[in-house]
Amino acid sequence: MEDEELKNKIEEWLKYDFNELTRQTVLRLIKANDVKALKGMMLNPLVFGTAGLRAKMNAGFSFINDVTIIQTNQGLLKYLEECAETKDKLKEKGIVIGFDGRYNSHRWAKMSANIFINAGVKVYLFSHLCPTPFVPFALKYYSCVAGVMVTASHNPREYNGYKLYWTNGVQLTSPHDKHIADNIDKYKEPWKSSWIDFSEHQNSPLQQDPLMEITNSYMKFVTDRLLYKNLNVSANIKIAFTPLHGVGWVYIKKAFEAGGFSSVYPVIKQQDPDANFPTLDFPNPEEGKFVMKLAMETALNNQCSLVLATDPDADRMAAVEKQSEDNWHYFTGNEQGTLLGWWAYHCWLNLYNSKIPHNEHHEPQTNNTQKICDQDVILTDDLKNRIKKLYMVASTVSGHLLQKMAEIEGFGFEETLTGFKWIGNKADELIESGHEVIFAYEEAIGYMCDSRILDKDGISASLLLAEMASYLKIQKNMTLYQKLMEIYEKYGYNEFKNSYLSCYDPKIIASIFDSIRNWQGHQNTYPKTCGPYVIKYIRDLTTGYDNSKPDNKAVLPFSKSNQMITFTFEHLDIKLTLRASGTEPKIKYYSEILAPVGYKDKDKIKDELKSIVGKVVEEFLKPGVNNISYPDMLPE
């Protein structure tokens, strides 16, 4: 083999790898002299980042496998032993480790536990597959220093991943990721002890199984949030549910039974965990009707009015609701976020009212009595002050209706970068400063409905949306969609058009974004128009430029490693963001109109948004020139 770098990397791999299956994979390629495949395996090593690891499962440093899992855990262990925030608590408080139902997830969870136990660290290792939200919940429950979840969430079957939570129960942020990456490189050669038989530690006092205790505590936690269990029973809403071959059904069933829902029908072909995902190529509930086919059949066969789905690790949720005999509404992530945000405020006001002393609660209504979120409230100074301490949080590419709600109702709202590592840490920061965060979300169907879990949680979101449906049915004779339209009447009609184009070449993605910030060959010059539409503002969170600010500097954090540009158009203040996905080969776009209150022409709003999206894709992304394409499952 002439390539010296490749030859050295192969020798290094064969020295490190004690897994006979992956060793044989590499040896077969060497025998076949398949240099291209070997380069792909060895010369593009996985990079540990704030999202941890996510990649296809295969041999080599470029993929996720026994060696890269060992390297990651060794690097994490060494960083936790040296970090001032964790080193004194590591052995006593330990870490928590969970896993989903994908191939190798259980093996890699046990392998991770083994490395920490060998170092004398207590490990709470789930004995059975669990939802991702269980890990941050258990981390805070036991006051652990870190949490690991082995999952690839909604990626196709050939993927797996390693997700890391920090001491506050939130996904990792910088600079911890860089320090861990440095330690991974420093301790990249697997220790002999990292390969020992995992069963040796089954009876170790350092290994504990948190499954039963955490399941029971979590169920109490989510059902304690429910305010209308009696209505859940009397409404008897029929719900079809699919976990998309993931972990969700066992836990959703427990939660719904405890919440008073007795008519929940699982999709039989998808209810049990199956690493092959036999009925789906892409187990992603964001794809709507393309992944909901069997769930809709289950709903029709059982006369259901609500369909719920969680992704394979149960941290996200999607919903469909029956409007009439042949009409079903597939809610977008933003529509669900609006409904759950409204519901969070409704429930908070309900709890506040319930704590008012009896004689005060029944005083004659005054001019200060208002109906807010279906609650009759007297706007006392105490209530106004408490409302000022409330916050909701959403990512910058999510809808802005909750921000408008916050402005009108008097509570706070914070915008973050995309991803729950930003959302969760902002929520944690607000809580530490004495505020109460009652809801947070991102448009990619991720919802944080209680700040005791500072991450998205598909189980609690499903339960609360179902209770909201029960409340509306009994108390208001409304559907969720009708309530959404009522919310729009008060705060402004909100319309979105979000999708993505596939691009498998990172260099093309970089060139597309560079061409926008060096428009028509002029360096550091952005476009002023797109077709007939005038661009009012541009915010570039790769460079930190934002011409809506007096000093042209963005308020949100920016990073050269993330491609993300937002355009605000003069026409109707339409916002459109282009963003390169951090976990998938996609250029995503997010567009939004939040029309003024009273604006009635919904069809015109939809047409305007569709037109602007078309122009941006045509002029800025140039699919034909750049050889990028819409997905086969293009949303209407």
How would you portray this structure in words?
The chain is α/β, with parallel strands linked by helices. It has 4 domains: 164 residues, Alpha-D-Glucose-1,6-Bisphosphate, subunit A, domain 3 (Alpha-D-Glucose-1,6-Bisphosphate, Chain A, domain 3, 3-Layer(aba) Sandwich), CATH 3.40.120; 114 residues, Alpha-D-Glucose-1,6-Bisphosphate, Chain A, domain 3, CATH 3.40.120; 158 residues, 3-Layer(aba) Sandwich (Alpha-D-Glucose-1,6-Bisphosphate, Chain A, domain 3); 133 residues, TATA-Binding Protein. The protein has 22 helices and 24 strands. The strands form 5 sheets. Strands 18, 19, 20, 21, 22, 23 and 24 form a 7-stranded antiparallel beta sheet that branches. The chain has a 6-stranded mixed beta sheet with strand order 1-5-4-2-3-6, sandwiched between helices. A hairpin with a 2-residue loop joins β12 and β13. The protein is globular. 46% of the residues are buried. About 1% of the residues have low confidence.
Can you tell me the CATH superfamily of the largest domain?
Alpha-D-Glucose-1,6-Bisphosphate, subunit A, domain 3
The global form is: globular
Q: Biggest β-sheet: count, sense, barrel?
A: 7 strands, antiparallel
Q: Note the gap between the termini.
A: 51 Å
Count of the domains: 4
Supply the CATH architecture of the largest domain: 3-Layer(aba) Sandwich
Beta-strand portion reads 15-25%
The third-level CATH topology of the largest domain is Alpha-D-Glucose-1,6-Bisphosphate, Chain A, domain 3
Alpha-carbon Rg, integer:
25 Å
CATH class of the largest domain: Alpha Beta
Q: Name the average pLDDT.
A: 94
Residue stretches low in confidence (pLDDT < 50, at least 5 long) are: 358-365
Number of helices: 22
Structure class = alpha/beta
Strands, total number: 24
Fraction of helical residues: 25-40%
